């Protein structure tokens, strides 16, 4: 049961004719979506229901009714024309402080993580509050217009003035009416890479960072890496925050910090609040060790985030042929029933000069790199940019159900496979019952020649 949903939400049961709630509240709906296709499970399970189309009435930022036909009236109506109404897309891993800086001050020639960290080290010398805010807002708007309403961003806190963090705390407040943004205090240069970094990370937590970050594979020694994991779990307990590590993002099969993270999570009972991001070395471990590790992961039940767009390009740069794919064992983790989501990681920055901000691009790449092309596998890839991300981010009220938050995206596709295939346009994005973004489909005029020349 790879897509079992471990926390329960109210079950959406259509009622006919009209429900008590509709009779009890005679006010017009603020927004009424007509003729939408819905997932059979409000939390998004496998396939959408194919037969019935639904009207979704929204009032006061909540979903008031879901029925095959709602009489209205409504202040605003949108015809979904049989397309999919999906819970919002979830961006579970991005670096908003570095977005849209590709080529500044220079391009990444080797294409490696390490050259990226060096270039970012130079670029962050010239960070300003306004620079970070403007780029982050542009990226969030780009993502929201493509259906993303929940974002977890890492913020480099190994910069002595914490400029990026201060700016992103303001951005978090500024977007809070339409976007749910979490900030991870991420020590890019290592918790022990410079003497002030540990104190800076703690300061970031005091200032309001939501999540404790780490990068054990980049610490100066293996011992420092292990020590950093223990220290970060201590801080997470002290400040009551979840954890999200950049973990084993390297081709080195000897990089084994995932076992340290999983063991700490298991011993402290923090599995569902712990996330291992990237874990690309897991794709390089031999099967003997990987099998033993999988047993620990099943017990620890931590969350995983893969970033296939980035890691298919960053990793394997030292290989000739055969060349590794550099992505963690997504399919096997999913088959083991563990929670895996997918992140964009970068939008045009020192690590990746491409990036549209669309999670459907990420899921599309995962389907290829992880060879998840069967029907259920494609639906799983879709779940990895929606509800699995919501679980990692700890979002309690995720899904389209009566009484739930009026957050959804209409995609120009009838189901998840088609959405991935076409990277379907998000024609309407609704946040808290408000229509945040609408995109019209491109018009094509097709006119074959009437005679051969
Ligand atoms: N920093 C890091 O350590 N790894 C990454 N993939 C990015 C930033 C984007
Ligand atoms: Fe990352």
Give the cofactors and ligands: 5-methylcytosine, fe (ii) ion
Enumerate how many helices there are, as a single number: 14
- Backbone CA Rg: 22 Å
Largest beta sheet: what is the strand line-up? 6-7-8-9-10-11-12-13
Low-confidence stretches: 1-18
State the distance separating the first and last CA atoms. 59 Å
Shape: globular
Summed up, the domain count is 2
| Mean pLDDT, all residues | 93
Order of helices and strands: HEEEEEEHHEHEHEHEHEHEHHEHHHEHEE
Biggest sheet architecture: 8 strands, parallel
Report on the architecture of this protein.
The chain has 453 residues and is of the alpha/beta class. It folds into two domains: 20-87 and 399-438, Roll (Urease, subunit C, domain 1), CATH 2.30.40; 89-392, Metal-dependent hydrolases (TIM Barrel). The chain is 32% helix and 18% strand. It has helices spanning 20-24, 113-123, 129-144, 163-175, 197-207, 222-239, 257-268, 287-300, 308-314, 330-335, 359-369, 375-384, 387-392, 416-422; strands at 31-36, 54-59, 62-67, 77-79, 84-86, 89-95, 148-156, 180-186, 211-214, 243-247, 274-278, 303-306, 340-342, 408-411, 426-431, 434-438. The strands form three sheets. The protein has an eight-stranded parallel beta sheet. α5 (197-207) links the parallel β8 and β9. It is globular and about 65 Å long. The termini are far apart. Mean pLDDT is 93; it is low at 1-18. The chain binds 5-methylcytosine (17E) and fe (ii) ion. Fe (ii) ion binds at residues 93, 95, 154, 246, 277, 345.
């Amino acid at each position: 049961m790879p897509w079992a949903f471990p926390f329960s939400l109210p079950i959406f049961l259509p009622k006919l004719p009209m429900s008590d709630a509709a009779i009890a509240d005679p006010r017009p709906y603020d927004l009424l979506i007509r003729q939408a296709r819905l997932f059979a499970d409000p939390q998004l399970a496998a396939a959408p229901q194919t037969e019935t189309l639904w009207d979704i009435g929204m009032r006061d930022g909540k979903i008031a009714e879901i029925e095959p036909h709602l009489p209205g009236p409504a202040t605003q109506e949108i015809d979904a024309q049989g397309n999919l109404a999906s819970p919002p897309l979830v961006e579970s891993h991005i670096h908003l402080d570095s977005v849209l800086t590709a080529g500044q001050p220079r391009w990444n020639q080797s294409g490696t993580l390490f050259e990226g960290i060096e270039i970012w080290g130079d670029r962050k010398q010239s960070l300003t509050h306004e620079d970070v805010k403007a780029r982050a807002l542009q990226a969030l708007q780009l993502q929201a217009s493509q259906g993303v309403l929940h974002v977890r961003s890492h913020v480099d806190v190994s910069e002595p003035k914490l400029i990026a963090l201060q700016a992103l705390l303001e951005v978090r407040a500024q977007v809070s009416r339409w976007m749910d943004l979490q900030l991870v205090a991420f020590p890019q240069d290592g918790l022990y890479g410079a003497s002030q970094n540990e104190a800076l990370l703690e300061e970031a937590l005091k200032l309001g960072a939501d999540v404790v970050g780490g990068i054990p594979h980049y610490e100066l020694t293996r011992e420092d890496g292990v020590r950093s994991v223990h220290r970060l779990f201590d801080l997470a307990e002290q400040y009551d925050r979840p954890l999200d590590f950049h973990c084993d993002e390297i081709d080195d099969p000897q990089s084994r910090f995932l076992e340290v993270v999983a063991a700490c999570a298991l011993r402290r009972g923090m599995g569902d609040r712990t996330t291992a991001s990237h874990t690309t070395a897991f794709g390089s471990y031999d099967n003997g060790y990987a099998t033993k590790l999988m047993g620990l992961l099943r017990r620890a039940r931590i969350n995983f985030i893969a970033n296939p767009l980035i890691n298919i390009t960053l990793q394997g740069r030292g290989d000739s042929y055969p060349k590794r794919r550099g992505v963690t064992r997504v399919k096997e983790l999913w088959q083991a029933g563990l929670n895996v989501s997918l992140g964009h990681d970068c939008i045009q920055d020192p690590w990746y000069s491409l990036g549209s901000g669309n999670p459907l691009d990420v899921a599309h790449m995962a389907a290829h790199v992880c060879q998840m092309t069967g029907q259920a596998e494609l639906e799983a890839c879709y779940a990895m940019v929606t509800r699995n991300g919501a679980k990692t981010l700890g979002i309690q009220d995720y899904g389209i159900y009566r009484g739930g938050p009026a957050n959804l995206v209409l995609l120009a596709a009838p189901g998840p496979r088609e959405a991935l295939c076409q990277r379907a346009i998000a024609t309407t994005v609704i946040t808290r019952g408000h229509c945040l973004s609408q995109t019209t489909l491109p018009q094509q005029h097709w006119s074959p020649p009437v005679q051969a020349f």
